[in-house]
RNA polymerase sigma factor (Aureimonas ureilytica), 169 residues
Amino acid sequence: MGDVLNDIADCVPALRRYARALTHDPDGADDLVQDCLERAIAKRSLWRPIGPIRPWLFRILLNLHRNALRDRRRRPATTPVDELADILPAPGSAFERAALAETARAMERLPGEQREALLLVAVEGLGYAEAAAILDIPLGTLMSRLGRARATLRQMTSENGRPILKAIK
């Protein structure tokens, strides 16, 4: 049982990053992670150690986030633009910082399903199969969402048809 709790604790930084990127609110992200950890610890007997615990935790966090979104549909959402740039590595030049801020704003405007997929793969560095399992979608669906997200980001962050930020592949 102690190993499971240690494995859960090891995942907290990644859960915090993902929650901050999903919610765009540091306090809301902390609450989301806390809710995720409470649920994971309370339900740890349901986890079957046939693989890493990280995807299970990400799925809990994502389900909690989606439930909260459904509960808040009637209220307008507020999204601070600067939050995503705070959790990514800081680029060197002023041009790179401006391009990163523009990319963060563009990511906020992506449809939720595309943003969730892109954050898991691009920010958290998860493999396609692991991200698809977390999102509970087929691998082909994940690939489609990533392709649409990347294409939309390229379009939103280009100037006269030329990409401003070349890091988006």
In short: The chain has a mean pLDDT of 81. The chain has two domains: 1-79, 81-169.
